[in-house]
Amino acid sequence: MVLLFTRNSLVLKSSKKTILTVTFPFLNSLIYCTEFRFLTISYDKRVIVLANFTINNHHHMIQIKDLHKSYQMGNNSLHVLKGINFNVKEGEMVSIMGSSGSGKSTLLNILGILDEADSGSYILDGVSIKNLNEKVAANYRNKFLGFIFQSFNLINYKSALDNVAMPLYYQGVKRKERIEKAEYYLEKVGLSAWSHHLPNELSGGQKQRVAIARALASNPKVLLADEPTGALDSKTSQEVMELIQGINDEGKTILMVTHEHDIAQMTKRIVHIKDGLIIDDNPVEQVRASLYV
Amino acid sequence: MFDIERWQEIFETLRKNKLRTFLTGLSVASGIFILVILLGFSKGIENGVTSQFQRDATNLITVWTGTTTKSYKGLNPGRYIQLKNEDYYAVSRKYDDYIDYKSSLYSIWGGTISYKNETGNYQIRGVMPDHQFIENADIGVGRFVNQSDFDEFKKVAVIGNKLKKDLFKDEDPIDKNISIYGMNFKVIGVFYDPGGEREESQAYIPVSTAQKVFNAGDNIRNMLFTIKMADNFEEAVELSKNISQNVEADLKQMHTVAPDDTSAVRVFNTLEEAKKIYSLIGTIQAVFWFVGIGTIIAGIVGVGNIMLIIVKERTKEIGIRKALGALPMSIVGMILQEAVFVTMFAGLFGLIFGLGLLEIIGPQIQSDFIKYPQVNFNIALTTVFLLVLAGALAGFFPAYRAAKIKPIIALRDE
């Protein structure tokens, strides 16, 4: 049995079988922990590990310097990003705001290694993201990043459980273990009862929860969310935001593109982008979504 | 290829997309099935037609004689050349290797035949047993002249259907005696001839008997030979031309006739007939090949089309998989593996089903023109692989292109 705590709240509960694979990714990120301790109790051949740790807020998860990106539109070149500089520390929850065409989605795509910048540097958790071939890019996307989309993007012929297990398939995790982990994350988003339903049997909020579980399944360093509440009504939006805040509370770094102010207020920092430049970057007093629910 | 996880993923995809799997499989299976049936019946028709016309003597050499028109070696023109039994035996011995059926003939053009009170004038032909096949006479009742009739100079007659109707009306003619010039002949059979009434108002008797009862000694009027069918038309032409020329030269030499005398010994071969049959079979084969190739092309286009649609439909899924960390080539590989599996499985199913149906239906067919429908198994199997390959190729390019599309574009909301 493994129990992992952060800030005295339970993060992970796992059966013995999955100790190595579940805990190792966590241990990797513990390198940056200022304080953690193991409590090992031998009890009837079982090992109980209790770890309590806090996140080092000074570690930079994302470092971006002078990022430029243009698109070729026929004969005209469209300069979308005109030198973006910003850093995101581990455990931060940042919302990127801006009107359409401001370059916020382009920035998110570059952060998500779905697109590549023309110039400038992008360092993700100490790894420089530049001139990657398809194979390495796919590998980084799989290991480092979790995506949450406005339109959920679930595979409609796969059950909720199989959708959550997908990133693990591409990590080469064996089937049995995939299912076990996927069940754990589905439970985390409160959908264990729906694990065998197809996406079209779920409500919008439930679909987004499945998508969040899928994004978490590969245990990424950063969650990237593109208008995660864009297709949801306000009540469901609050619920999803509460879930995302909970994930952030556990130490996960989250970047979110949104154009809704009340949603942005639920993050810890708001970055405004206009015409390809950051015009405003301020921490905000986080509004807990649970207050609305 | 042997990655069990990959196969699990593929089977799951196939299971979850039953309709798509079924339709893809159905189009491939029905394509192969139609092709197998088509090829089978083309072969069946070819077999049927060949055997139909092979029964007809297609390559017949006829020899008859007349009077000489040129003096030669001191002999005057105007001499009648009489064919004898020995001429027939000499020729049939010499060309035995090439001859299928042979017969000498001694005919009386108008002979009086009567039974009880009915009398008529009919052609009476003295023939050998092989003549049945040369003339393509169908024996309706009884039998044709056989070797022992010939050897023992039996007074037996095979009468045409018209003759039978004239003399016997509805009576059974077998074993009844008819009178030819007052001599009693026992009727042993009735024949039908596709040639019609004129052919059917004849009576066949053994040539040996005819020579005896008509006091012809060992004279014969004609000799008929059929030449074995060669593998193709050119060979058949060459062979019968050579044999006709040689037979003519041999007979002229035996009867001391000038080599350039065209009326004393005449040899005629029915190559025209053979030409028609070869070209008919050739045409049938060409038509079926044309239709068959057309079917394969339609099948290939169909499979390609399905693959295009499948890939198009899955573009978004490909984008999602890429965002989750799938390699482009692993996506292409998965789509192809899935396509090859479905087309191969369905193709073999269609093949087995088609072959099975031919096997069951084939022997039941009661038609003279379709016989033993069958398929060259290798051709059918090659077609299956061709379809699978075409499906894979047709699927590869759109899948490759789809896998190259950046996930953001594939995932873009409509």
Which helices and strands appear, and what pairs or packs with what?
The complex is a heterodimer of chains A (293) and B (414).
Chain A: E1 2-6, E2 9-14, H1 19-30, E3 35-43, E4 46-54, E5 60-73, E6 76-89, E7 93-97, H2 104-111, E8 119-124, E9 127-128, H3 134-144, E10 145-148, H4 160-170, H5 175-188, H6 204-217, E11 222-226, H7 234-249, E12 253-257, H8 261-264, E13 269-274, E14 277-283
Parallel strand pairs in A: 1-4, 7-12, 7-13, 10-11, 11-12
Antiparallel strand pairs in A: 1-2, 3-4, 5-6, 5-8, 8-9, 13-14
Chain B: H1 4-16, H2 18-55, E1 60-65, E2 83-84, H3 85-94, E3 99-115, E4 118-127, H4 131-135, E5 138-142, H5 147-151, E6 156-160, H6 161-168, E7 177-180, E8 183-192, H7 197-200, E9 202-206, H8 207-213, E10 219-220, E11 222-227, H9 233-254, E12 265-269, H10 271-313, H11 315-323, H12 328-361, H13 377-404, H14 407-411
Parallel strand pairs in B: 4-9, 6-8
Antiparallel strand pairs in B: 1-11, 1-12, 2-10, 3-4, 3-7, 3-11, 5-8, 6-9, 7-8
